[in-house]
Design goal:
The chain is α+β, with helices and mostly antiparallel strands. α5 runs antiparallel to α6. Strands 1, 2, 3, 4, 5, 6, 7 and 8 form an eight-stranded antiparallel β-sheet that branches. It has six helices and eight strands; from the N terminus they run αββββαββααβαβα.
């Protein structure tokens, strides 16, 4: 997380809403030879206290059975050129949104897996309306059982949520808005959304 308090003023509820909507992040747990990392979709409950996910049984994190972990959730990000501020003596920077969910990763019983998969697919499929949603019921029982034997359900019991919303809040409004007018044509990801966030939308 960025140490500047100007970028860390958002309330926890906004962090939770962002992470729930994003529902994808980088799961990291300390291993014997260094951090283990997996990119995972997850389901975060409304309070932000639990994130459900699944891992391949062969994943080192799954083999460890859990432990102290973090899910880093990234949002829009982009380079900001000093020329875009319209004022002298500025330096390049990178604006971004990031939320970290920290806590204890625990393995759940295998009989919780199907419900987790159904809830997760319903969450994502619901965003594709009016498409008819895909469900596990569309799979043959043999293939579904084979897939489920290869994965394990886990839950991150979230104990701490931190967020950085680095959107040039440390600049005067006119300077920040000037940069927002250029960032959409720059370098990064989801630049239109980043520009809107810099404008306070």
């Amino acid at each position: 997380m960025h140490p500047n308090p100007a970028f860390r003023r958002e309330e926890t509820a906004r962090h939770v809403a962002f992470a729930r909507e994003r529902a994808f992040g980088v799961l990291s747990l300390n291993g014997e030879s260094g951090p283990w990392i997996s990119h995972v979709p997850f389901l975060l409950n409304e309070s932000g206290s639990e994130a459900d996910l699944h891992l391949l049984r062969s994943n080192p994190i799954a083999r460890a059975g859990g432990g102290r972990a973090v899910i880093a959730v990234s949002g829009p990000d982009g380079y900001v050129s000093p020329d875009w501020y319209g004022t002298a003596d500025q330096v390049p920077t990178w604006n971004y949104v990031a939320v970290h969910l920290r806590g204890e990763l625990v393995q759940l019983p295998d009989d919780r897996l199907l419900d987790m998969l159904d809830r997760q697919s319903a969450f994502f499929e619901g965003r594709l309306a009016p498409k008819s949603p895909w469900t596990t019921a569309k799979m043959t029982s043999e293939v579904l059982e084979k897939m489920m034997r290869a994965i394990q359900p886990f839950r991150l019991r979230v104990e701490r949520i931190d967020g950085t919303w680095k959107l040039n809040q440390n600049k005067e409004d006119a300077v920040r808005l000037s940069a927002a007018g250029h960032v959409e044509d720059g370098i990064g990801q989801e630049l239109g959304r980043l520009a809107d966030l810099m404008r306070g939308k």
